[in-house]
Write a structure and sequence with these properties.
The chain is α/β, with parallel strands linked by helices. Helices cover 29% and strands 23% of the residues.
Length: 471
């Protein structure tokens, strides 16, 4: 049915204005004032912002890791995302050495099909560059619309690729029109430091942070930037957590390189001291890169404000405290890395960023949606409010206050890392392609409604000629 959203304040990455939105066939059909209400379902957005749906560029749903599997799959994970104001996710498809890329992609399609309640795409992990892999990459882009490749510089003997693999991936990506993503930590030195810590009897969660110092993130980030310059390619550094990495990204961007940086809400509001919580509670905060000393937070906020960092991902990778995180009792290296973040990504940036004057409302939309859409080949079909764009919309009350808690969140895990945190601003209703997924804070979506989205090449617009480009 045709829908009409009335009386809301529309916010994009560039504009703020009052208007009504007419939605037809899953797309934004008309933006205007005093639109005809006959034959439409009217939604009153008085007192609310209307944002383009959030896009989370960094999720790990139904992912095997550390002898277990993430607790949130494509059903619970996308439901939680929707409650948080996210209407599209891009998940990481893991590959196995020696196996065709197509096999890994099929595995991820099977994980998502029939479960996702919002739209989704995939990034593809590159663990080795062989003639077979190079031959497959053009098909991955053309047939699957996967236009971003992930290379790990950490997790030695698990995910870590060598510098030659990273460089050849950058060269191939330049040729093919793909964006290379890196987890930038020096895995070789981390491997040494973790073994040394265990030899010295240091087994508590805090040693996860102490064996992965920020210097090693900064070093790997700088190395990745230099290889990108050598390859004349493009790079996206995921989950930036520290001043050292921000500095390297800023240096690269000042030289005119196509280097982009993402941070995550956990690094903006939590710090290293959380890993020192007693009774093994610190394990709840074990992820990589680790939480840093508190002073890094202001560096990250400033980097978002001045454009040195451009996006906010969740790095959603959830494990129960009981039964999963507890696998690392007596050995911090066995604590599954990751946390449940997907639901609170948008609210934390709004509350801590916009409400506290750190970033503008337009910057907020750019950081959680528009810039991500542009970098990952989803714009302008997604990531903005424009005639012809998908009606992925969030009706957001900027005044409501709530307390984040595992008792009320929609993720499948038994804890929330932001437990007890007060935030201002909350999604009231969320639409994906014109259909309500959340309405008046109640789930009304349907598993399987979410569609797989093929993405355009790096730097290209989505091939949808009906979209009027507004920003």
């Amino acid at each position: 049915m045709t829908k009409l959203i009335k009386n809301g304040t529309i916010v994009t990455a560039t504009d703020i204005y009052e208007a009504d939105l007419l939605i037809q066939d899953g797309k934004i059909a008309v933006i205007g004032r005093n639109l005809d209400e006959s034959g439409t379902e009217v939604i009153d957005a008085t007192g609310c912002y209307v944002f383009p749906g959030g896009i989370d560029p960094h999720t790990h749903l139904d992912m095997p890791f550390g002898g277990t599997v993430t607790k949130d799959d494509f059903e619970s994970g996308t439901i939680a995302a929707a409650f948080g104001g996210t209407t599209t996710i891009i998940d990481f498809c893991l590959t196995n050495k020696g196996e065709p890329l197509k096999k890994a992609i099929e595995t991820w399609h099977n994980k998502a099909t029939g479960k996702a309640v919002i739209d989704y795409g995939f990034h593809l992990m590159i663990s080795e560059i062989t003639d077979e892999v190079l031959a497959e990459l053009p098909k991955v882009i053309e047939e699957e619309g996967i236009t971003s490749f992930k290379v790990f510089m950490a997790y030695k003997n698990v995910f870590q690729a060598d510098d030659g693999t990273l460089y050849r991936t950058l060269v191939a990506a330049k040729e093919l029109g793909a964006l290379v993503m890196v987890h930038a930590e020096n895995g070789d030195v981390i491997d040494y430091l973790t073994k040394k810590a265990l030899e010295d009897g240091h087994t508590d969660p805090i040693y996860h942070a102490l064996t992965r110092p920020p210097e090693l993130e900064g070093e790997a980030t700088g190395r990745a930037c230099q290889l990108t310059e050598l390859a004349d390619s493009q790079l996206y550094v995921v989950h930036v957590s520290c001043a050292q990495a921000v500095e390297k990204i800023a240096e690269a961007r000042n030289k005119g390189l196509n280097v982009w940086g993402e941070t995550c809400p956990q690094y903006l509001v939590l710090d290293q001291s959380y890993l020192e919580k007693p009774n093994f509670e610190g394990a709840k905060y074990v992820w990589s890169p680790p939480l840093r000393e508190k002073w890094h937070q202001e560096v990250l906020w400033n980097a978002l404000k001045n454009g040195q960092l451009q996006t906010l991902g969740s790095d959603q990778c959830s494990f129960d405290f009981k039964g999963q995180k507890e696998l690392g009792r007596g050995d911090f290296t066995k604590i599954p890395n990751g946390g449940p973040i997907i639901e609170d990504r948008v609210s934390i940036l709004f509350s801590e960023g916009v409400k506290k004057g750190r970033i503008t409302l337009n910057q907020f939309v750019d950081i959680v949606s528009t810039r991500i859409a542009k970098l990952f080949g989803l714009f302008p079909k997604k990531g903005t409010i424009a005639v012809g764009a998908d009606a992925d919309l969030v009706i957001f009350d900027p005044t409501v206050e709530r307390v984040i808690s595992a008792e009320t969140h929609h993720m499948a895990v038994d804890y929330n890392p932001f437990e007890g945190m007060k935030v201002t601003g909350e999604p009231v209703s969320v639409l994906c392609r014109g259909e309500f997924v959340v309405r008046d804070k109640q789930f009304v979506g349907k598993p399987g409604y979410g569609q797989y989205v093929k993405r355009a090449k790096y730097g290209a617009l989505m091939a949808d000629q009906d979209v009027v480009k507004m920003s």
